[in-house]
TrEMBL record:
Residues 470-561 form the Clp ATPase C-terminal domain. GO terms for cellular component: cytoplasm. It comes from the Bacteria. Gene3D superfamilies: 1.10.8.60, P-loop containing nucleotide triphosphate hydrolases. One of its GO terms (biological process) is cellular response to heat. This is ATP-dependent Clp protease ATP-binding protein.
Length: 583
């Protein structure tokens, strides 16, 4: 007894509210003449062990002990020896009961584990259950509904010797009451507003849906109280936010600042007002907590030609909402084209969410994935959860999901021709109006093409965000931003100032770029052109001109710039980098 049993003491002030009816049922069952053993069934965390402690307190003249099942099965031959150890334990307990004239109750938590470890041990329990009332020894076992069905219910003789009592999860109000009793026990002199306790319950319900009340809320409150006791920090919403961020990886304080969000996103992604507005609108809804709290914070389909800012907007969103681009997790969906890769995608996605529940999930070029992956995505969009390989349920409620696609190339090619027909000063408002005009065609392409999307997937998305092919003016903005970034990098690393001739901009934007092709003149093309034609030559010049503090970047030769966005392969223009001479 001293080796495998631990006395169960009362719970003091930590009695959970609205459990008296269950405690009464336990007492009544233990006093029955025939079936006097209890099986408590409930999800992990609902308070089964605490209920047994409450029963021990109510039956003060009885002695309650918890059996250490893991210790009993330990050792090299633990699983083999477990049945004989249990038999010896029961004999010793019965002798103790006779000598002390005490009613005894043994509590076996995780009861299904005995069946998994040693089916023979389960058989050793049956005689005890059959004669428990006459022996003065009763058993209370606890497990979950699923595990009881899987391991116990099929054993008819065992099942019939147990009175099943179900333990439901506490409601939100009941959990708040339990948290109040916790505070009364550990911080009797503190006066805490119930609004803080309610916030704890709401947060845990939202970000830990696979866990049960009251355990998940008690653990969070316990962490807050521990920090408060150690460092003297007041119990407040600010401290709660700090603990949630540190322990759960969730930022519960983020809000969309009116006006600033759209300005920031437009500064990061040039001339895509329709896409940006669709994202900002969803951010407002989510920030105000008016979104469906059973689904992800927001879900978007970014559609448009390559190199127009789809990935950049996802990165900008991650930075704005979660504080860092690293909060965006990208999945290249071309890696999941085979149906056998669905489990791999499930593992990677659930692993990413387990590490960081607050993030942007980017499913890049979804049309390249197999149909089974789309089905997996439907499950996430539906109820914001997915089960990992270990059977653990992972929540998607605090993340944004972005799907990108290049489907609809024909429509975007037509749009690009429309842009080309206008002057180089084609306004953002004009581009926005034209994109809205073509939106029905884009949506039709998404549904009707061979690589299109099933209606049930499109119907579950919060927004379809179209990106237009970029205009000449937008190319200038992208090129200007890239050159400034390059100049800063050179100065920070080498202390050298770059001076770009004005013809350099024209060279980057127009030379060698097929601007009438929706997929050839994007931001990636411009960045690649800068890397190939300029960055390499600057790197070489930094070696050749070690003691120069200024370098000039110029264009030599004639550029073939025509009135429309075209290319002249016979251009003689090329980039030169050398020592800078002020004029």
């Amino acid at each position: 007894m001293s080796k495998y049993l631990k006395p169960m003491l009362g719970v003091g002030q930590r009695k959970f509210v609205n459990r008296d009816n269950i405690v009464n049922l336990i007492q009544a069952t233990l006093n029955r003449n025939e079936v006097s053993n209890v099986a408590l069934l409930g999800d992990a965390g609902v308070g089964k062990t605490t209920i047994v402690m409450m029963a021990a307190e109510a039956l003060a003249d009885w002695e309650f002990y918890e059996v250490n099942v893991s210790l009993m099965s330990s050792g090299e031959d633990g699983s083999v020896q477990m049945a004989s150890r249990l038999t010896k334990l029961f004999d010793e307990v019965q002798l103790y009961q006779k000598n002390n004239n005490k009613e005894l109750v043994l509590f076996l938590d995780e009861f299904h584990a005995i069946m998994k470890i040693s089916p023979a041990a389960l058989e050793a329990i049956k005689p005890v259950l059959a004669n428990s009332g006459r022996r003065g020894l009763r058993l209370i076992v606890a497990t979950t509904y699923e595990e009881y069905d899987q391991y116990i219910r099929g054993n008819q003789a065992l099942h019939e010797r147990l009175e099943v009592i179900k333990v439901p999860e506490l409601t939100s109000d009941e959990t708040i009451g339990a948290l109040g009793l916790y505070l009364k026990a550990y911080l009797p002199n503190e006066r805490i507003d119930n609004s803080l306790l309610r916030r704890i319950v709401n947060i845990t319900n939202k970000v830990q849906p696979s866990q049960s009340q009251p355990r998940k809320s008690v653990r969070l409150l316990d962490a807050v109280v521990g920090y408060h006791t150690t460092f003297g920090v007041p119990l407040s919403d600010q401290l709660l936010s700090k603990i949630v961020k540190a322990s759960l990886g969730v930022n519960i304080d983020w809000q969309v600042n009116s006006g600033e969000t759209e300005v920031y996103l437009n500064r990061r992604v040039f001339d895509q007002p329709v896409a940006v507005k669709s994202v900002v609108n969803r951010l407002y809804i989510s920030s105000a907590e008016l979104n469906d709290n059973t689904r992800p914070r927001g879900s978007f389909l970014f559609t448009g030609p390559t190199g127009v800012g789809k990935t950049e907007l996802a990165k900008a969103l991650a930075t704005w909402v979660y504080g860092a681009e690293e909060s965006m997790v990208r999945f290249d969906m071309s890696e999941y084209s085979n149906p056998d890769s669905v489990d791999l995608l499930r593992d990677r996605v659930t692993s990413a969410l387990w590490q960081n529940p607050s993030c942007i999930l980017l499913y890049d070029e979804i049309e390249k994935a197999c149909k089974e992956c789309s089905t997996l995505l439907l499950q996430v969009l539906d109820d914001a959860r997915l089960t990992d390989r270990h059977g653990k349920e992972i929540s998607f409620k605090d993340c944004f999901i972005i799907i990108t696609t290049n489907v609809g190339a024909d429509v975007y090619a037509e749009l690009n021709r429309k842009y080309a027909e206008n002057s180089s000063d084609f306004s953002i408002n004009g581009a926005e109006a034209l994109l809205k005009e073509y939106y029905p065609l884009i949506e039709r392409e998404l549904r009707d093409t061979e690589n299109g999307f099933p209606a049930e997937l499109l119907g579950r998305l919060d927004a379809i965000s179209p990106f237009s092919a970029i205009s000449f003016a937008t190319r200038r903005k992208i090129a200007d931003a890239q050159l400034k970034k390059l100049a800063k990098q050179v100065y920070d690393n080498h202390g050298v100032t770059l001076h770009f001739d004005k013809r350099v901009m024209e060279y980057i934007v127009r030379e060698g770029v097929k601007t009438n092709d929706a997929n050839s003149g994007g931001g990636r093309t411009l960045r690649r052109k800068i890397d190939q034609d300029i960055t390499g030559k600057i790197a070489k010049a930094l070696v050749n001109y070690k003691h120069v503090s200024d370098l000039a970047v110029i264009v030599e030769g004639k550029m073939a710039i025509e009135s429309k966005f075209t290319i002249d392969v016979d251009s003689s223009a090329q980039i030169k980098v050398g020592a800078y001479t002020p004029k």
